[in-house]
Amino acid sequence: MISMPPFQLLCTVVGLLLLPLHISSADPDPLQDFCVADLKAPASVNGFPCKPEAEVTSDDFFFDGLSKEGNTTNIFGWSVTAANVLAFPGLNSLGISMNRVDFAAGGLNPPHSHPRATETGVVIEGKLLVGFVTTSNVFHSKVLTSGQMFVVPRGLVHFQLNVGEEKALLFTAFNSHLPGISRPPNNSLCFQPFNSR
């Protein structure tokens, strides 16, 4: 029998236990061409189960919801149209989704975060103040106009405010088919709506 000092034995055992662990820094590659979501089935950890391939149609890969302007007649003067797996089942398991965000003059997309995705956005029309707060409590913001882009790292609280005189339009994209949203309670927002004088 081979005799080892206890510390060396412990290090060897820990090393052997760690060897078989598979370490991955990104989502795994899909094993099939597509997996159109079967929204009638319960969601699993990795998304919705796939529709049987015989039931998949061309319509599963196209979505026209982002072409319609949203209704901004609410207290915050904004509207979001989501193109995530729940509205567009062809996105299931592909790690991507989008939103259309419409703003009335002075409209605000209140502070929120996306726990499962980084957000990037492009201002299509108007003038938006975009900002986020880091976990170190540092605030970053900038006023953006048509054609300018921003990124908000996953999980950070952020907002968009229309600081222009006219309506604004923003398209956002996420690296998740269902990025999720988390909002602080509205009673914690210490402001009056920006479009009231």
TrEMBL record:
- InterPro entries, per database record: Cupin_1, Germin, RmlC-like_jellyroll, RmlC_Cupin_sf
Q: Which GO terms describe its biological process?
A: plasmodesmata-mediated intercellular transport; regulation of root development
The name under which this protein is listed is: Germin-like protein
Keyword Lyase assigned to the entry: answer is no
Q: Which cysteines are joined by disulfide bonds?
A: 35-50
One MF annotation (Gene Ontology) recorded for this entry = manganese ion binding
Organism equals Salix purpurea (Purple osier willow)
Q: Where is the signal peptide?
A: 1-26
